[in-house]
Amino acid sequence: MEPSSQIIVALDCDNRATAEDIVARLGDECRFYKVGLELLTAVGPRFVEHLVAQGKEVFLDLKLFEIPNSVAGAVRAAGTLGVSMVTVHSMGGAGIMRAAVDAAAGFPGLRVLALTVVTSMTDADLADIGVDDPAQQQVLRLARLADKAGCHGVIASPQDVETLRSELGADALIVTPGVALPGESPAEHARTDSPRAAIAGGASHVVVGRAVTRATDPAAAFRAVRADIAP
């Protein structure tokens, strides 16, 4: 896969003007954007349609965790918008993941990805909610469940990628938030690594946010990430 196609820029902002400015400044450099709950709640789905109409791919990061019928409805709505990826929460169980996969079947370009353990969570955080296994073991358990449910891939930290690629095989999508360039602060991410390490370990995509979106020159920052992951 060409490096530019492996980079997803997270539009983690709370208004359309800022998001549009970032997209305009990146121009043809970036093909893939993540729209999460903050931006979707602030500006609504029409901005997603706007991105798709420009020929951009959209990763709609909803982290769906609801009863299967509601999850299926949300996935169909995402497919109607024309997005390329949508996320469900694997800790919701096999039922909601199967419902999501079945709903996505009517949209050939839509891939369902299962969030395993968010990158901000540590072993201690998992223990707080009654999960005694370390994060890496929990990630692997949930990834296996997602694979069995028919999900097209998973969301996991860069530190989990190598194990997941071995477990899930060559065709699975493995999307990694929580990457940080050398010298960059990992922000709220507890389990992080560089974009290069994530791709080398077998990630299909890396998600980058502030390193690009808050840079003085977002296009130059994007090119730096691309250079970091280039073979």
From TrEMBL:
<keyword id="KW-0665">Pyrimidine biosynthesis</keyword>
<dbReference type="Pfam" id="PF00215">
    <property type="entry name" value="OMPdecase"/>
</dbReference>
<dbReference type="InterPro" id="IPR011060">
    <property type="entry name" value="RibuloseP-bd_barrel"/>
</dbReference>
<comment type="pathway">
    <text>Pyrimidine metabolism; UMP biosynthesis via de novo pathway; UMP from orotate: step 2/2.</text>
</comment>
<dbReference type="InterPro" id="IPR014732">
    <property type="entry name" value="OMPdecase"/>
</dbReference>
<comment type="similarity">
    <text>Belongs to the OMP decarboxylase family. Type 1 subfamily.</text>
</comment>
<feature type="binding site">
    <location>
        <position position="119"/>
    </location>
    <ligand>
        <name>substrate</name>
    </ligand>
</feature>
<dbReference type="GO" id="GO:0044205">
    <property type="term" value="P:'de novo' UMP biosynthetic process"/>
</dbReference>
<dbReference type="InterPro" id="IPR047596">
    <property type="entry name" value="OMPdecase_bac"/>
</dbReference>
<comment type="subunit">
    <text>Homodimer.</text>
</comment>
<dbReference type="GO" id="GO:0006207">
    <property type="term" value="P:'de novo' pyrimidine nucleobase biosynthetic process"/>
</dbReference>
<dbReference type="InterPro" id="IPR001754">
    <property type="entry name" value="OMPdeCOase_dom"/>
</dbReference>
<protein>
    <recommendedName>
        <fullName>Orotidine 5'-phosphate decarboxylase</fullName>
        <ecNumber>4.1.1.23</ecNumber>
    </recommendedName>
</protein>
<comment type="function">
    <text>Catalyzes the decarboxylation of orotidine 5'-monophosphate (OMP) to uridine 5'-monophosphate (UMP).</text>
</comment>
<feature type="binding site">
    <location>
        <position position="209"/>
    </location>
    <ligand>
        <name>substrate</name>
    </ligand>
</feature>
<keyword id="KW-0456">Lyase</keyword>
<feature type="binding site">
    <location>
        <position position="34"/>
    </location>
    <ligand>
        <name>substrate</name>
    </ligand>
</feature>
<feature type="active site" description="Proton donor">
    <location>
        <position position="63"/>
    </location>
</feature>
<dbReference type="GO" id="GO:0005829">
    <property type="term" value="C:cytosol"/>
</dbReference>
<keyword id="KW-0210">Decarboxylase</keyword>
<feature type="domain" description="Orotidine 5'-phosphate decarboxylase">
    <location>
        <begin position="6"/>
        <end position="225"/>
    </location>
</feature>
<feature type="binding site">
    <location>
        <position position="210"/>
    </location>
    <ligand>
        <name>substrate</name>
    </ligand>
</feature>
<feature type="binding site">
    <location>
        <position position="12"/>
    </location>
    <ligand>
        <name>substrate</name>
    </ligand>
</feature>
<dbReference type="InterPro" id="IPR013785">
    <property type="entry name" value="Aldolase_TIM"/>
</dbReference>
<dbReference type="GO" id="GO:0004590">
    <property type="term" value="F:orotidine-5'-phosphate decarboxylase activity"/>
</dbReference>
